[in-house]
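Researcher: Sequence recovery benchmark, item below. Answer with residues only.
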């Protein structure tokens, strides 16, 4: 879907307000005021606040898709797995506002979970993970029978835990800035996830 420059301005404002005040705590009038447009323009472009939220996720969804091109890399499957984890955490960590919205609207009120964009995103990412797992099985590196849903949940759940407990974990880790916290996630946390997932894929029981 293509958005005009004015639509993108409105979407960026809405994203900021939804992330700080929540969907229910933000009115169309609030968005119009912050974006310096009138309410009629927002209604014309998006129709409703719910549709605006759907369009915001549609706009952002491409960034959260795992890169299929890693499947074509001529490197060991363990390295492909490492690259998948590293890039996924980096992409998610670069768009914290939309993930904050997702944690509330999708996790609690189920709004975005019902959208086609959300379902297609999940299916795409699971297909990429499934392909990596099959590559590993074919190469004799991974045991068969691993569930891509559980691998994805391991990454997503860990990432969301670090986002929802940011203030507490910053203190526990003796990190003083958000930049330091982001660097920790994209280095130490990534290595932890890479090791954890490799252990899950290779452990015989």
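Model:
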């Amino acid at each position: 879907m293509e958005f005009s420059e004015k639509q993108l301005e409105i979407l960026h404002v809405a994203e900021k307000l939804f992330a700080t005040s929540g969907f229910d705590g933000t009115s169309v009038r609030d968005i119009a005021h912050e974006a310096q447009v009138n309410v009629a323009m927002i209604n014309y472009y998006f129709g409703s606040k719910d549709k605006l939220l759907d369009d915001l996720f549609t706009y952002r969804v491409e960034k959260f898709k795992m890169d299929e091109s890693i499947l074509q890399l001529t490197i060991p499957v363990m390295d492909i797995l490492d690259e998948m984890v590293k890039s996924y955490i980096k992409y998610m960590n670069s768009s914290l506002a939309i993930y904050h919205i997702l944690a509330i609207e999708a996790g609690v009120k189920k709004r975005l979970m019902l959208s086609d964009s959300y379902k297609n995103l999940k299916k795409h990412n699971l297909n990429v993970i499934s392909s990596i797992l099959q590559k590993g099985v074919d190469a004799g590196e991974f045991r068969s029978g691993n569930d891509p849903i559980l691998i994805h949940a391991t990454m997503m759940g860990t990432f969301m835990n670090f986002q929802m407990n940011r203030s507490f974990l910053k203190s526990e880790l003796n990190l003083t800035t958000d930049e330091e916290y982001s660097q920790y996630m994209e280095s130490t946390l990534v290595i932890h996830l890479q090791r954890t997932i490799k252990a899950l894929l290779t452990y015989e029981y």
